[in-house]
């Protein structure tokens, strides 16, 4: 741990990975760091550029320590286009929400005493972050995590529409259950891609939630035959590599205008949902570590008008509804959780 006189600590994600959550890989970039949610080494020239862009967005990536620092500071360099804000959380409660431009120096005073302090990076927009600085600190120590889990999905999982990065539905599940998530939601790009499969196959998690179907419907990625085979193969491959990993498959939540409208391969969203659920039902019948949830159980058809402003993406209230209902279901999954031990800062 780097320390200067006066109790100022500088914490970067490569030297001090124990202080960071949510990134699968970090890349140094001229004194700043880029969080990758799919490692750059997993991509090839034939992979879609948009998935690569989204893999560099820091959805769910956060700094988390216990400290008595007087203030926290970090420099955020944003790319082109819109960027979500940065959140500072103190003892589980939102302390500050800071809009991001190019560049932004986030500096936030902290309450006196020892607290759990988190800095959440934007869930949407390409950014690089400098080391997090903590001033006036006599204590900077790791925080013990709860169960480590990952959510793979679309924009509905990435949650651009959340008010801030700590308000996504996976973040709220962490609060409800005391867990620690990795957000593998990729807006428009949840198509069972090989880089995502390879990342999940080696992920250091104890539960996988796979929310599958809406992007496949929108892009007409697979027809009736291909969808069942590709989805089933994707999940069986993961279960083969990680046989003790509980996998929960979630079918699409409702989208009223898409339910009975056929895409270019002739599938309606209702039919995509049925295929996903049939795959879930088949796999669950033969594997004790596999289960599935119907999307409309998390957000009902009769709730769509109020909770889906654009008919597809949940508003903040809808995310809370999903988080509450998923927490209840996931909390009942049989899990064998072994806490991870971190080195205490010297």
Automatic annotation (TrEMBL):
Domain SsfX3-like N-terminal, chain residue ranges per copy: 19-126
Name of the protein described by the UniProt record: SGNH hydrolase-type esterase domain-containing protein
InterPro entries according to UniProt: SGNH_hydro, SGNH_hydro_sf, SsfX3-like_N
Membrane spanning stretches: none
Originating species: Microbacterium immunditiarum
Pfam families: Lipase_GDSL_3 (PF14606), SsfX3_N (PF21181)
Domain of life, per lineage: Bacteria
Domain SGNH hydrolase-type esterase: 151-326
């Amino acid at each position: 741990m780097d320390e200067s006189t006066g109790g100022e600590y500088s914490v970067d994600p490569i030297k001090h990975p124990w202080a960071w959550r949510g990134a699968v890989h970090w890349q140094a970039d001229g004194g700043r760091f880029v969080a990758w949610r799919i490692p750059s080494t997993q991509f090839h020239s034939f992979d879609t550029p948009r998935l690569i862009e989204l893999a560099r967005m820091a959805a769910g990536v956060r700094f988390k320590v216990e400290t008595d620092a007087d203030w926290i500071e970090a420099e955020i360099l944003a790319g082109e286009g819109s960027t979500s804000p940065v959140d500072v959380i103190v003892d589980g409660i939102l302390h500050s929400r800071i809009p991001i431009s190019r560049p932004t120096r986030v500096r936030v005073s902290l309450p006196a005493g020892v607290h759990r302090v988190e800095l959440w990076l934007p869930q949407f927009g390409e950014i690089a972050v400098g080391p997090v600085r903590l001033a006036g600190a006599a204590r900077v120590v790791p925080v013990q995590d709860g169960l480590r889990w990952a959510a793979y999905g679309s924009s509905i999982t990435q949650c651009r529409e959340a008010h801030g990065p700590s308000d996504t539905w996976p973040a709220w599940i962490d609060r409800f259950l005391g867990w620690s998530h990795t957000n593998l939601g990729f807006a428009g790009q949840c198509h069972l891609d090989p880089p995502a499969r390879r990342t999940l196959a080696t992920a250091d998690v104890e539960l996988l939630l796979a929310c599958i179907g809406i992007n496949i419907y929108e892009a007409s990625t697979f027809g009736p035959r291909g969808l069942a085979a590709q989805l089933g193969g994707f999940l069986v491959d993961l279960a083969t590599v990680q046989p003790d990993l509980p996998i929960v498959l979630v079918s699409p939540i409702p989208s009223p205008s898409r339910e009975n409208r056929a895409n270019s391969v002739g599938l309606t969203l209702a039919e995509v949902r049925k295929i996903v659920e049939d795959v879930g039902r088949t796999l669950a019948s033969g594997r004790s570590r596999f289960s599935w949830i119907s999307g409309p159980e998390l957000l009902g058809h009769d709730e769509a008008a109020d909770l889906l402003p654009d008919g597809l993406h949940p508003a903040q209230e809808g995310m809370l509804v999903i988080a509450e209902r998923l927490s209840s279901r996931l909390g009942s999954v049989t899990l064998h959780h072994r806490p991870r031990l971190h080195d205490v800062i010297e």
